[in-house]
Amino acid sequence: MSMRAKAKPEAEAVTAEMTGAEVLIHSLKKENVEVLFGYPGGAVLPIYDALYRSPIKHILSKHEQGSIHAAEGYARVSGKPGVVIATSGPGATNLVTGITDAMMDSLPLVIFTGQVASTVIGTDAFQEADIMGITAPITKHNYQVRDVQDLPRIIKEAFHIATTGRPGPVLVDIPKDVANKTISPDYDSTIHLPGYQPTFSPNILQIKKLADAVGQAKKPVILAGAGILHANAGKELLTFTEKHKIPVVNTLLGLGSYPGQHPLFLGMGGMHGTYTANMALYECDLLISIGARFDDRLTGNLAHFAKNAVVAHIDVDPAEIGKNVPTQIPIVSDAREALRKLVDVDSETPDTEDWRNQLTENSKNYPLWKKTNTDEFLPQQVVELVHEYTKGDAIITTDVGQHQMWAAQYYAFTDANRWVTSGGLGTMGFGFPAAVGAQLAFPDQTVVALTGDGGFQMTLQELSTLQELNLPVKVVIMNNHTLGMVRQWQEAFYEERYSHSLLPVQPDFVKLGEAYGIKSYKVETQEEARVVFEEAFSHRDPVLIDCRVSGKENVYPMIAPGKGLHQMIGVKP
Ligand SMILES: Cc1ncc(C[n+]2csc(CCOP(=O)(O)OP(=O)(O)O)c2C)c(N)n1
């Protein structure tokens, strides 16, 4: 018997009577969902049966964590919500890391989980997990559908909540009997959320207050976070900064929101940021944070952070303002709206010439550095080679660790939405499946998954998804035979006691890739890497490249835990 899906009559037409599962699929079409990331199981069988007759593309990952990270990658680069479906119990709990990751990094996801039948909820039924309780603190909102008539409205609300204000994950839990029940759906029900009215436009008096502060500043700096990307405000940020000649620092997640080569750009701030960026944050007299949340990895010790500055904070989420850093000029607003108003408002342009000269001196005297007097294949060189062979025009996803920081430091992002990384949660295993999702969003783009040998092994089962879909993702493993970032901290703070951070025994990544039918290579020198990269980036097939890099490199400069931004170490070789 053929294993191919049998063609069945279309179930999309709105009939008077539909099952809950069919209502769900129909609602997804109404929300213009083009791709679903998921994995089937008992409680979602009715939904998968409705999907069987639907033209919506479904990507079968090999583990639900793969589904949700792929949905995050898709959402990050496309700006559209990533949609995930998983079964009850273990299917749902396998999503938890990804949901938390999306919550921390403000990614719009709508997640559908199957649930045991309403009649047995609370009885420890087979594959029952209290996913409502589990996900309450890690979702922007969650729903359990008790009455199938509510389904069209709940789905509308879920998409609305996930994508408006500060984006985030919304979960909809659907008991199996609800999915099976037949109704005449009402798609016209309107969204009624009196408790959820995100502010979009800024208070104009606050904008004037900030404009006045800009006019008086001698040492202003802007901290631009991912909120700029979510609000599609890159152009407005450029206009505002060029108008007033204000230097810009990016957060890790904000990279790409400002052109990496621009003379006003100081680089990334924070633990592994540039000296120039960190000293600008330390010494400034006006700090304008836009769509950034003052993460502790960015601020270092708060007692020393922007001590002499008037702080203005523009954020769509009022809960962020004043959370970590006392703020004199709070502005609750969409970033683009606020920047447009700031550009329009009558204001003086500050004289920042001395300040900019001082920062330029810093950049000249304290650039990022790596070893030069060595024949070793350095991890930083891998990032530089990827930049060279992709002409700086790729979507780069990373895992978490040293390679992530080197990617952030050395890939000089010039465009928005090309940088996909796990910032807030720091989730190893994120990067490779996120690349699968990003490639699905932009099939013609070059997508590179830069991963560590540790993180890659957490979700490498998605090689099978790559094989099945023949997606041209280039997997570049920066293989230092260690859990590099852990090793670095053990070297610096634990007297070189490398407790369980060395990985001398590893699988043969080339054979592993080949087992999934993927062209795979091992490179041990820069020269070998050049030959392989040349070939790998010349075609549209998936590739895996095991780059054997030095295992002794550390990420510098660095701010040790507890220290201030002005106390960076490793600023010079
Ligand atoms: C799921 C998860 N577990 C543990 C950690 C802690 N951690 C942070 S970086 C790191 C090492 C990563 O090693 P690797 O993937 O090889 O990358 P490298 O640092 O060598 O570039 C670890 C274990 C984490 N961030 N995520």
Describe this structure in words.
The structure is a single chain. It is built from 23 helices and 20 strands. The N terminus is likely disordered. By secondary structure, the chain is α/β, with parallel strands linked by helices. The radius of gyration is 25 Å and the shape is globular. A six-stranded parallel beta sheet has the order 3-2-4-5-7-6, with helices on both faces. Strands 11-10-9-12-13-14 form a six-stranded parallel beta sheet, sandwiched between helices. The protein has a six-stranded parallel beta sheet with strand order 16-15-17-18-20-19, sandwiched between helices. The protein starts with 17 loop residues before the first strand and ends in a 25-residue tail after the last strand. 36% of the residues lie in helices and 16% in strands. The relative contact order is 0.11.
Task: Label this structure with key terms.
disordered N terminus; 573 residues; alpha/beta; 6-stranded parallel sheet; 36% helix; globular; binds thiamine diphosphate
